Amino acid sequence: MEQRQINSSTICAISTPPGTGGIATARISGPQAIEIVSKIWRGANLTDTKSHTAHFGTIFDPETGQHLDDGVVTVFRGPRSYTGEDTIEITVHGSKWIQRELINLMIRQGAEIADRGEFTRRAVVNGRLDIAEAEAVADMIAADSRTAARIALSHIRGEYSSELEALRNKLINLAALTELELDFSEEDVNFADRSQLLDLAREVNRKVTSLAESFATGRAIKEGIRVAIAGATNAGKSTLLNRLLGEEKAIVSDIHGTTRDVIEDTAEINGLLFRFIDTAGLRATSDPIEQIGINRARQAISNADITLWLVDSANPTLPTEKDPKTIILYNKTDIASAPEGALAISALTDLDLNPLLEELTRQAAPMQINPAQTVTNARHYQALIKASQSSARIIDALQTTLPTDLIAQDIRETITHLATITTPITTPLLLQEIFQHFCVGK
Question: Which domains, from first to last, does the chain contain?
Answer without folding.
Answer: 11-129 (3.30.1360.120), 142-219+373-435 (1.20.120.430), 223-367 (3.40.50.300)
